[in-house]
Specification:
The chain has a five-stranded mixed β-sheet. α1 packs parallel to α5 (about 150-170). A hairpin with a 5-residue loop joins β1 (about 40-45) and β2 (about 50-55). The longest helix has 22 residues, at about 15-35. The protein has helices at about 15-35, 60-65, 70-80, 100-110, 150-170; strands spanning about 40-45, 50-55, 90-95, 115-120, 145. Helices cover about 40% and strands about 15% of the residues. It contains five helices and five strands, in the order αββααβαββα. By secondary structure, the protein is α/β, with parallel strands linked by helices. Bound molecules: zinc ion. Zinc ion binds near residues 69, 71, 101 and 102.
Length: about 170
């Protein structure tokens, strides 16, 4: 089903290889966000044709916007580029399990599949706290893949919050 989705990585890369490659792009966006003092979360949206529509990191501080999570920023850009508020064939990659707001936005966009790195035990709304992305009453269910490059995604967050605590203690 996903064989034709992505040839950029060369033949034989497979879905797992493509997932890791996209997640690495999301991790780079998360690192850039950290460099701006943002919580390091990154997201990538890939269209149904396998082309990258958007890459974004968190921008809540830069934009002074509580809704400017990486996933929302990336979905907005992807929808603009696609010229459609529905992203029915799209796959979204996020370094961290999306929160309730972002999971709701993924449902609104009718995203086909969500891939994320590390779970978020405090705010995750895909499996940890709520299960918004495969809630049958919402009339849209997406495929879910968790744990892609999980350690790297988690380490980014841990590093960021450790450094922030240290600065506060100094
Ligand atoms: Zn969010």
């Amino acid at each position: 089903m996903q064989a034709q989705e992505d040839f950029e990585g060369g033949e034989g890369e497979g879905v797992e290889g493509a997932d890791e490659r996209r997640m690495r792009a999301a991790i780079r966006a998360a690192r850039e966000a950290a460099g701006r003092g943002e919580v390091p979360v990154g997201a990538v949206v890939v269209g149904g044709d396998g082309k990258v529509l958007a890459v974004a990191g968190n921008r809540t501080r830069a934009d002074c916007d509580p809704t400017a999570h990486a996933e929302i920023v990336a979905l907005r850009e992807a929808a603009r580029r696609a010229g459609n508020y529905r992203l029915t064939g799209a796959v979204v990659y996020s370094t961290i399990e999306p929160c309730a707001m972002c999971a709701g936005a993924l449902v609104q966009a009718r995203v086909r599949r969500l891939v994320y790195g590390a779970p978020d035990a405090r705010a995750g709304a895909v499996r940890s706290i709520f299960r918004i992305c495969d809630e049958s009453s919402l009339n849209h269910r997406m495929e879910l893949t968790a744990g892609v490059l999980e350690e790297e995604c988690r380490a980014l967050m841990q590093e960021f919050f450790r450094e922030r605590r240290q600065r506060r203690d100094e």
